[in-house]
Specification:
This is Phytanoyl-CoA dioxygenase family protein. The protein has 267 residues and is α+β, with helices and mostly antiparallel strands. 17% of the residues lie in helices and 25% in strands. It is globular and about 45 Å long. It binds 2-oxoglutaric acid and fe (ii) ion (FE2).
Length: 267
């Protein structure tokens, strides 16, 4: 069973992240790696760290030709069960970003908090980051600042115009102590969950091994994906279209009653 244990949930609440015991079956991981190879082939002009909305099949309106295999992963009952442990019984899938860092020159992910540019009110999201390859300190695994989510506050981020970063936002110096960082090492098929307020980043991948995480974004349906907000303005470093971003209710009902589940879906 995929369900988070009581200890895993406590760890998530205290630390802002957790690495559950559940992992993808071996065959599924292999299948997803093949889907990733195909996704990269379909998007020759896109850096593989910036495969945003990869779960939307075909031209997704955000500069990427996506693949239904990633939507299927996001809707996998085991993953939905895991994330429900954190978010409760009413869950909306609202995003998917494939962060694939090629061997040799995989981009750095600056230290950041996720919530800065997301039109979700009240702000809430749990990301499930699924490793498609082994991800460790040697090839630029995710790094987290345990407990940094606790104040539930977004710190100032500075914009960086460098092109060799996965995101163009970096936490202002002095907002946290990098010495307290923990490496989130995962074998292929393992996953981590992290909170929208938790500080995290990743080093560049200069190793000879590719490193890929599929970041699946879920919010509780008590929050609203507010399409009238325009918090991005091109500042995040990844082109997105939140007005047309499809939502999927993957569990329960829309508690807020205000989420729009028709925008962005093809008829
Ligand atoms: O995989 C990475 O390097 C960054 C992932 C990340 O920032 C996220 O999933 O929110
Ligand atoms: Fe992030």
């Amino acid at each position: 069973m995929a369900q988070l244990t009581a200890d895993e949930l406590t760890s998530y609440r205290n630390e802002g992240w957790v690495r559950p015991a559940y992992r993808l079956p071996h065959d599924r991981t292999t299948f997803m790696r093949e889907a990733l190879d195909e996704l990269i082939r379909r998007n020759p002009g896109v850096r593989p760290e910036k495969l945003v909305s990869a779960h939307i099949e075909g031209d997704n309106g955000e500069g990427v030709h996506g693949s239904a295999a990633f939507l299927e992963l996001a809707r996998d009952p085991a993953l939905v069960e895991l994330v429900s442990g954190v978010l409760g019984d009413d869950v909306i899938l609202w995003g998917c970003h494939v962060f694939c860092k090629p061997a040799g020159d995989g981009y750095e992910t600056p230290w950041h908090q996720d919530g800065h540019y997301w039109p979700i009110r009240p702000l809430a999201t749990c990301t499930v980051w699924v490793a498609l390859e082994d991800s460790d300190a040697g090839n630029g695994c995710l790094r987290v600042i345990p407990g940094s989510h606790k104040e539930r506050r977004l710190h100032d981020h500075l914009h960086e115009d460098r092109t060799d970063l996965t995101l163009a936002q970096r936490l202002a110096p002095g907002t946290f102590d990098e010495d307290t960082a923990a490496d989130v090492e995962l074998a292929a098929g393992q996953m981590s969950l992290h909170d929208v307020y938790m500080i995290h980043g990743a080093r560049a991948n200069t190793s000879n091994r590719r490193r890929t995480g599929v970041a699946l974004r879920y919010m509780p349906s008590t929050s609203v994906f507010d399409r009238s907000l325009r918090p991005v303005d091109g500042k995040s470093g990844v082109p997105v279209d939140f007005a047309r971003r499809p939502l999927w209710l993957v569990r329960g009902v829309d508690r807020s009653g205000c989420n729009d589940f028709s925008a962005g879906h093809r008829r």
